[in-house]
Specification:
The protein is 74% helix and 0% strand. The protein has a domain of 62 residues. It is globular and about 70 Å long. 46% of the residues are buried. By secondary structure, it is mostly helical. Keywords: Signal. It comes from Pseudoxanthomonas sacheonensis.
Length: 554
């Protein structure tokens, strides 16, 4: 269960254009459908997806509403109930034969059954849709609809052969990004090469080409392409950000910062440059930037003063950072400055003063509740850094006394208990969140993952994770949790499908470690070692990685 951070990479930029996996519940026209709809919703909210699938199919059979058939299909797909999905999809096809979403569901179901001819037929129809929406559905299906990424890659390769990819820039950029996310270097090279031929003067295609070359290991050629985009870097702020991201991905944050330095500057650009220069340990250039910005320090711009203070911290000048933060005037930035002051005081070794400042904000009646809660969370974090286990828990207890049953504080304490192997207490805090907020996705996922990872209550864990999946079916952290509980249930082949899908969506050390462990215990040890190495590159200190290495002896 990696951090639940929504990212936008490659194909994900376009997935949001397609319809969500679960539409809102339809209102049945027939009274015969009302009872199964209600039962299906209760089952869905309880995380009992097979039951929800059965009830919704019954509702769709009792009512001629296309929306019910659609919802029954989608819930059956989520429940991995291919038989019910087939029946519900037949009803949906009868009621909405021209629906692009229906054809996408047919393609997804065919992919799951490894029925390549049927999947190809439906995807081809979507790609040839003249309303410029069909290819977006096809993209979604190929990216996340099947169980075998290799089959998706083969189909996409065939569509390139057949000239089925629409002749517009967005489509070629999207399918190029999809090939990269599927980790199919030859296919990515082919699609990107074709895009370059079709759109030779388009900077975004050149950028995609550079990204493809970088992933293929040809960083020298990738750099040449990026260097040729210098004029675009000046003219378009978005392109500057994208080019900088490519340099950063090539472990060249200094050049990334230099790219951002071209063209108009604002606080966001200055902040990104400072972060990159700090990452590059380029103290000389960072000092030049610091000196440039602090000349304007007399201007009481709160955001700018926060930024200059942050750069002072990067330069390991905590006392100067403290002065800048203390000079931030009133308003919301003042609250953030107070939190940063406590951090800097802790960094300076003035721990008691840091804790006192955090407590002062906690008790400030003039501060809003969000700021005061943030001060409790900060003090707890500082206590954790100070290896003060009892102190961390005491702070969170005080926070919960001031803000009873606050979800953020309960969540933080639940994770703190989990780190101490007090799974019973972690569970109690996460369940308190679910009492007041039964659909809290983060809590559902955290509790489900904890039960799967640290207990043998796998069926209970599965139901909790399924509730989270129903709410956010394309969230990498939840897909990872789902794959992990499948592994714990002994369903290794299914687990690998989900874990690989999660890693496609988010390159995370914990997900990579999970894939490595499953591969190791299914006898694929060479591939497992590759994922262990990938996990180390992303975060060598990751707890799941350390546990997996200990368990496997890899």
């Amino acid at each position: 269960m990696p951090a639940m951070i929504r990212i936008t990479v490659g194909v994900l930029l376009f997935l949001s254009m397609a319809c969500p996996l679960l539409a809102a519940p339809a209102t049945p026209k027939s009274p015969d459908a009302l009872t199964p709809v209600m039962a299906g919703e209760f089952a869905l909210q309880a995380g009992q997806l097979p039951e929800a699938s059965r009830w919704y199919l019954q509702a769709a059979q009792a009512d001629d509403d296309a929306g019910l058939a659609e919802r029954a299909t989608r819930i059956a797909l989520l429940a991995n109930d291919d038989a019910s999905a087939t029946q519900a999809l037949k009803l949906w096809r009868q009621r909405a034969p021209q629906s692009l979403a229906m054809r996408a569901a047919e393609a997804a179901l065919a992919l799951r059954k490894n029925d390549a001819p049927s999947a190809q037929r439906e995807l081809d129809a979507l790609l040839r849709d003249k309303e410029d929406m069909g290819w977006r559905y096809a993209l979604t299906v190929l990216g996340s609809g099947g169980r075998d990424p290799a089959l998706s890659a083969r189909l996409l390769d065939g569509f390139v052969d057949a000239g089925a990819i629409p002749s517009n820039l967005q489509a070629w950029l999207a399918f190029g990004g999809l090939a990269q996310s599927l980790e199919q270097p030859k296919l990515a090279e082919r699609i990107v090469g074709e895009a370059v031929k079709r759109f030779p003067s388009e900077p975004r295609v050149a950028l995609l080409h550079a990204s493809q070359l970088r992933q293929a290991g040809d960083t020298e050629q990738a750099r040449k392409i990026l260097a040729g985009l210098s004029s675009a870097a000046v003219l378009t702020p978005e392109m500057r950000l994208a080019i900088a991201a490519e340099y950063d991905a090539m472990s060249d944050p200094k050049q990334a910062a230099a790219t951002l330095a071209r063209g108009p500057q604002d606080n966001q650009t200055y902040g990104l440059r400072a972060s990159l220069l700090a990452k590059a340990e380029d103290t000389m250039t960072l000092t030049v930037l610091y000196d440039e910005l602090r000349k304007e320090g007399s201007n009481p711009d709160p955001e700018r003063r926060l930024l200059i203070g942050q750069i002072a911290q990067f330069l390991k000048r905590p006392q100067e950072a403290l002065d800048w933060y203390r000079g931030v005037p009133g308003g919301p930035q003042r609250t953030e400055a107070r939190l940063r002051i406590a951090n800097v005081l802790f960094e300076l070794g003035h721990k008691e003063e840091a804790f006192a400042d955090a407590r002062a904000l906690q008790g400030d009646a003039g501060a809003d509740d969000e700021a005061r809660r943030g001060a409790y969370l900060l003090e707890a974090e500082l206590k954790q850094k100070d290896d003060d286990d009892a102190g961390e828990l005491d702070v969170l207890a005080r926070g919960l006394a001031a803000y009873p049953d606050d979800n953020a504080l309960l969540y933080a304490r639940g994770l703190a208990w989990e780190r101490r192997d007090r799974i019973d207490r972690a569970e109690a805090d996460l369940r308190k969140i679910l009492v007041t907020d039964p659909e809290n996705v983060a809590a559902l996922n955290a509790l489900g993952y904890t039960l799967a990872d640290r207990t043998t209550r796998y069926q209970e864990a599965l139901e909790l994770i399924d509730r989270a999946r129903a709410a956010e079916p394309d969230e990498a952290a939840i897909i990872d949790s789902y794959g992990w509980v499948l592994y714990r249930l002994g369903r290794n082949a299914e687990a690998l499908v989900e874990l690989r899908r999660a890693f496609t969506l988010q390159k995370d050390a914990e997900i990579a470690a999970h894939i490595a462990e499953v591969l190791w215990f299914t006898g694929k040890r060479e591939e497992a070692r590759k994922f262990f190495e990938e996990s180390r590159k992303l975060d060598a200190e990751n707890r799941s990685l350390q546990r997996a290495l200990e368990k496997t002896g890899a």
